[in-house]
Amino acid sequence: MPVLRVLSTVAKQALQAPVCGYQPLAVTARCISFSPRQVPPGSDASFHSVSFSETDHPKVLITGGLGQLGVGLAKLLRKRFGKNNVILSDIRKPSSHVFHSGPFIYSDILDYKNLREIVVNNRITWLVHYSALLSAVGEANVSLARAVNITGLHNILDIAAEHGLRLFVPSTIGAFGPTSPRNPTPDLCVQRPRTIYGVSKVHAELMGEYYHQRYGLDFRCLRYPGIISADSQPGGGTTDYAVQIFHDAVKSGKFECNLRQDTRLPMMYIDDCLRATIEVMEAPAEALTMRTYNINAMSFTPEELAQEIQKQLPDLQVTYEVDVMRQGIADSWPMNFDDTNARHDWGWKHDYDLPELVQTMLNFIGSESQIAQAT
Ligand SMILES: NC(=O)c1ccc[n+]([C@@H]2O[C@H](COP(=O)([O-])OP(=O)(O)OC[C@H]3O[C@@H](n4cnc5c(N)ncnc54)[C@H](O)[C@@H]3O)[C@@H](O)[C@H]2O)c1
Ligand SMILES: C[C@@H](O)[C@H](N)C(=O)O
């Protein structure tokens, strides 16, 4: 076969074959662009050539920003770096309040070309990757969780490496499993989670660390405990009960818990979680002896949480109707989280223990419900 025909056949096959991504169109663009897979050994340092300059304000993109955590993080980052320097993105439609409080953009993390366009057009320097399916919804839709949490992460890693971004990806207590030490769970130990969520998060930790040592990607990762917030709803996790109990306690004085009363899990108030995220993103690289850290604040059982709430709302009645799937997940997760390394390396310190958490949640939800009743 003439050389030209051979080349054109090979090129056609290469363009048709879904060898390195989720969607053929994205794959085509990605394979012929500058990609970590095409960087020859020894040329890693070039990734730093376009990296974030410490003297500039970062230009931040948050993926999956309309979930429990993204809007709060955007608010803090906008205070720090300016409203227009922080872009929220998601595949859902924002509320009018979110839409008018700063830049919002549609972004599906499975669409590589769209992601790249956003990063390039907005000169993004920091990427906070919040898109994910959480533990309970992930088990209910494994193939979607695999696509979003694993294929989506590959797009994010490649974009971040290609454009010299500082990348934050949260991991979770769910990245551990029944064979991990559970009380306490250190940073480095056996990780054999039994959920697609946990498997995808271990994958994210390892891939991020690999891209860091292989390509110089500035990857930073915190393993969050269950996060408790008053003004945003959790997105389908095992720790959701610890948010719902406050709303039901204020609204009806009754709560049906889907975990057993003695299920101990690490938890954190959202303000601590978001502050930790900004602190680790701002930490000097030399301070980070690892790229994935446990962070912790408190650990409690549903019974202990209910007792603390009953100090303020003594009539609260809690019943237990155990959800077998969620209970199985919770029983395989850490009971206490050891975050010694985060405290030592970059000065992590939580502000909220259980009593402050309960007081803050009840104040917030109580005042919201008074406003709702008055209007
Ligand atoms: N909330 C917690 O308790 C907790 C604890 C540990 C770790 N984390 C991690 O923090 C991150 C944020 O958590 P959260 O509670 O805000 O999650 P969430 O479930 O509330 O929100 C996730 C968001 O991702 C979006 N999303 C789904 N598919 C997408 C796609 N294809 N493209 C773009 N966006 C998509 C959803 O629309 C949703 O708004 C997640 O990675 C989660 O694993 C959360
Ligand atoms: C713990 C965390 O990752 C999430 N809240 C979940 O329960 O799935």
TrEMBL record:
It catalyses: L-threonine + NAD(+) = (2S)-2-amino-3-oxobutanoate + NADH + H(+). CDD domains: TDH_SDR_e. Its EC number is 1.1.1.103. Residues 60-295 form the NAD-dependent epimerase/dehydratase domain. InterPro entries: Epimerase_deHydtase, NAD(P)-bd_dom_sf, NAD(P)_epim/dehydratase. GO terms for molecular function: L-threonine 3-dehydrogenase activity. It comes from the Eukaryota. Pathway: Amino-acid degradation; L-threonine degradation via oxydo-reductase pathway; glycine from L-threonine: step 1/2. One of its GO terms (biological process) is L-threonine catabolic process. Belongs to the NAD(P)-dependent epimerase/dehydratase family. Catalyzes the NAD(+)-dependent oxidation of L-threonine to 2-amino-3-ketobutyrate, mediating L-threonine catabolism. This is L-threonine 3-dehydrogenase, mitochondrial. It comes from Electrophorus electricus (Electric eel).
